[in-house]
Each structure stands twice: as structure tokens, then as C-alpha cells.
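C-alpha cells please, single chain.
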Amino acid sequence: MKVGKTRLAVFDTFKTKRQQITGEAIRQRAIIHHLSNSTNSASKTRTAISQSIAEKNNILWKNIYSGIFRDLDEVLLPLGIVEEEGRLPLKRGPKALQQNGMPFYHLTKKGMIVSLAIDNLSERRKILRGIVHQADDNEKQAFEIMEKLVKIAPHFAFSVFERYVKAYCENKLDDLLPFTIENVSKSTDDSAQVQMELLEGFSKLSKLDRDQTIEILKKID
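Here you go.
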């Protein structure tokens, strides 16, 4: 369940520029993207995350550190999108950090679901396979269906995750877990109904009509 008014902002846009996501959304997406691809503990600290994001955007990491710190501690950690994985021992720096170590983080199963909804995220198929192995018994059917859909219609499949996470961000879903067919159905919108109508209609066509339809759709895509 969400804590207080804390909410995920990865789909937030400016009120006057609906096609442009906010700085907070960009930071949260970047954190999730970074953690989805990090393989060692040293690369998953707040400082390492800030430095990596800053390098990709050609800015000073110290200028974004406070924003990264806030997104982690006030949003991603409370919501269970990210959790502390462990602590690295330090020989230098503040005494408290030397005693307690520097925390490093990883994505939870909920965080991996969010990562599947973010555009331009690499290795999404790999992430999905990892989630399938972590799925509870009541989630396996939904995740396995999504894995099959990714093989034949990846854009459609990931659009399902996008709608699902967006519904959560807009407080239309209480939580992203459990990921069940029943919960996914709560996030459907007009675009989902259009896609389903096309899928059902397409399945009823003869092979010749399907081939001709595909050729037409390719031309107007």
C-alpha cells in the first residue's frame, strides 16, 4: 500500500506541455533505469547513481544529488519500488557513514514492473523473465501470458505494462502487486479496447485476409 500522499511520478507531465515529462519524472525514470542495469554494489549507491545520470546528461553530479536522494528516500523506498540491498564499508567520510556503511539499492519486483513500463529501457525481455521466476502462484498466469505476448507483439505487451503502471501513478490502483489478470484489467482504457477489438477481429479472418490486412497496416503505420 502507498504511504500517505507519496506517489510515483514517472508519467507526470507539465500542465502546459502535456507531451513533456517533468524533471521529477526524468529523475525517477533514470534511477529505475540505472538500477535495472547495474550489476555490482558499488554502482548502486546514491553517489554512483547520481554520477552515472550526470555523466549521461553532461552535468555535474553534485547538482542532481539532492534530487536523487529525495526521490529515493521520499518516494521510491517508501513505495517499495526500490529497497536497500546492503551497505558498503567506508574508511573515509562522515563518521556515521564509516560506522554504518554506505547503503546501496536494488529494484524490487514492483520496481521491475515499473521498469517494464518505461520507454527506451534496455533488456526488458530479460527483466520480464526475472519477474516470472519471482512470481507468486497467483501471478504466474499473468506474467507467463505477458512473456508470450512479448514474443509476438512486444509493443502491445509493453503498452499493457505502461497502462498498468500509469494507472497506479494516477491512484487508480492501490498497488502494483499482486500482478494478476484481474488487477491488470482495472487499468484498461479506450486504447486497450481498440487493440482488443483489432486482435479479436484479426483472429477471425482467413489466412488470405490476414495477410492482406497486415500489408495494409504496414503501409499506414
